[in-house]
Amino acid sequence: MADLTIDVRRLRKTYGDFEAVRGIDFEVRRGEVFGLLGPNGAGKTTTVEILEGYRSRSDGEVSVLGMDPGRRPRELRARVGIVLQSTGLYRHIKVREAVAHFAAMYPHPRAVDEVISVCGLEGKQDALARTLSGGQLRRLDLALALVGDPELIFLDEPTTGFDPAARRQAWDTIRSLKDLGKTVLLTTHYLDEAQALADRVAIIKDGRIVIEGAPRDLGASAGGPRYRVIYRNGDGGFVEHETEDPTTLLHELTGEALARGERLEGLTVTRPTLEDVYLELTAGSASEERTDR
Amino acid sequence: MTDVVTLAWRQYRLERKLFWRNPSAAFFNFLLPLLFLAFFGAILHGNQHDLNVIVPGIAGMSVMSTTFTALAFNMTFLREQGVLKRIRGTPMPGISYLLGVAGNAVTNTALQIIIITVAGRLFFNTGWPRDWGELAVFVAAGVLCFASLGVAFSHVIPNFDSAPAYVNAVFLPVIFISGVFYDAARAPGFIKGVAQALPLKHLIDGLSGAMVKGTSLGANISALGVIAAWAALGVLFAVRGFSWEQHRG
């Protein structure tokens, strides 16, 4: 138990008649990057906001760093960093001013200059927030969440709207948090992001966790999609097979091809990706059209 | 506790710095009432009766614009932008933050009252206030009343785009019927009745007593009572309806 940074048991949240979260359980261990995936309206943000102390829960047990976020203890807020999905800032504040101002709220802040450089904002120290681009503002969000030197960091869609280079840079920053021994709870729409960063992921659909595990293991789990074998036949068209047993299939295919004196041009064998698992499991979600709440 | 005060002070200093950096806020909160004063002062030059009305009238309007208007705008903006939500996720106590924001507004009130008082003495021949203590009491009561009403009113404003419409729909009629620009005693009966029920007219009566007429606090105690009643209502709704987040929909 001592190693559990987050412990969620039978968590429920209802808004009137609508059950946004319908009894979910998960654990996040210390030093782990945990990814929460799911379509809009699946209950991701509701779950995270309960853990952050923004929302009350309807039922279940929640422990964050051994404390109950529903009671909003100040000590908990001092040990947690939060990057919300969309939060503004004073328009006329300078980057360095903002980071220094937030640093003063925490008992053991990191050095302001260090945080600015970790977040790639060195050149923008004296820029007003209103002059920053979307990506720069997002990096400032991250800087403000990191300056208190938190043990646990919540990242709600941290790279939405980033160009590919900026995303890679943000990923490096998030990996560096892991190297520092921080725990990260990440929610994201981007499956490659979860695959690249998360030690474990849970997929939420309609307020329930449908699957949980290491990204590379999820593809192999029961009921998930299968290996895909593709090659070009003698007419030049592509042939595609799905199988749970690629060894046998390949043996048959290559045996037949050799017997015919053909080559299997363009042969590829792909393992199911997190994306395949995700799309299969979240297909037909009742909440896909609902906005996230 | 010292921590709560230290953080409130830091927040206050930041708010002051940012206030002067934002030209439109500085203009509407600060210069506009002073421009009105200069403008009406010039028109009414030599007409001491009207000058004696306009100086405390503008002072009352300043109290309302620097607290009610400014806080209704600011709280709507801070809530819609998610600044309040962000602050809520930090260890800064909510009370420190709100004290810093409110302190900024009250500083503007104090500066304006000082400028109007000095202008009254130097340019409008109203002399120094007859009773400084009474002036301080009415300004303080007005600040509490209009600041809390401003925060309470921000809960009604659906979004920042509509804030000017909502705020001016209250502010403009109230300043016109409450005798900012003319002697309220000359207004038609039904307007007088409405103004009588609202706090600004009473604030102006009190300020007028303190600044030009020299009527004692005791003589204006009923005016203070009306302001206090509105303040109680304002505090009640400011606290009860308070939200750190924008309600959706």
Question: Which descriptors apply to this entry?
Answer:
heterodimer; A: 293 residues; alpha/beta; Rossmann fold; 2 domains; 6-stranded mixed β-sheet; 3-stranded antiparallel β-sheet; 10 helices; 12 strands; B: 249 residues; mainly alpha; 77% helix
Q: What report would you give on this structure?
A:
The complex is a heterodimer of chains A (293) and B (249). By secondary structure, chain A is of the alpha/beta class. Chain A has helices spanning 44-52, 74-78, 95-103, 112-118, 134-146, 164-179, 191-197, 215-218, 246-260, 274-282; strands spanning 4-15, 18-29, 33-37, 59-64, 80-83, 152-156, 183-188, 200-205, 208-213, 227-232, 238-243, 265-270. A six-stranded mixed beta sheet of chain A has the order 5-6-7-3-8-9, sandwiched between helices. Chain A has a three-stranded antiparallel beta sheet with strand order 2-1-4, covered by helices on one side. In chain A, strands 11-10-12 form a three-stranded antiparallel beta sheet, with helices on one face. In chain A, β1 (4-15) and β2 form a beta hairpin. Mean pLDDT of chain A is 87; it is low at 287-293. With 249 residues, chain B is mainly alpha-helical. Chain B has one domain. In chain B, 77% of the residues lie in helices and 0% in strands. Chain B contains ten helices and no strands. Chain B has helices at residues 2-21, 23-43, 48-81, 83-88, 94-122, 132-154, 163-177, 189-197, 199-213, 221-240. In chain B, α2 packs parallel to α5 (94-122) and α3 (48-81) runs parallel beside α6 (132-154). Classes of the chains: A alpha/beta (293), B mainly alpha (249). Chain A binds chain B through residues 52-54, 74-75, 77-78, 80, 82, 84, 86-93, 97, 101-102, 104-107, 128, 144, 148, 293, and chain B through 7, 10, 14, 17-18, 21-22, 80-83, 85-86, 88-93, 245, 248.
